[in-house]
Specification:
alpha+beta, elongated, two-stranded antiparallel ribbon, 2 helices, single chain
């Protein structure tokens, strides 16, 4: 995946958890030297979609603390509420799985 990040941009890369026999592969945590390098990698993640046959279990995610996850969840819920209020005000009806 050509993301514009070079080897020197990677500060640390290591597996999480303890090694166990016959267990699923452990998650890999990659620490980058800057937010810019992280942004470059995360914006290039879509390129992995074509490699699903080769890497079927690859999942990318931001590493957040429990506090950051809670704040993110609250922001998402707040945005959903605003969208729902706006839709009710405009008389928009949503159908299908996104109608929650």
């Amino acid at each position: 995946m050509n993301s514009g990040v070079v080897d020197d941009d990677i500060t640390k890369a290591f597996r999480l958890g303890k090694r166990q026999d016959n267990a699923a592969p452990r998650p890999l945590l990659v620490q980058l030297c800057s937010r810019m390098a992280k942004s470059l990698v995360m914006s290039s993640v879509y390129k992995l979609k074509g490699a699903e046959a080769k890497f079927p279990n690859v999942v990318e995610a931001h590493d957040m603390t429990p506090k950051e996850r809670q704040e993110c969840k609250e922001l998402v819920n707040e945005a959903k509420e605003k969208m729902n209020k706006m839709h009710r005000k405009l008389g928009v009806q949503r159908r299908g799985p996104q109608a929650r």
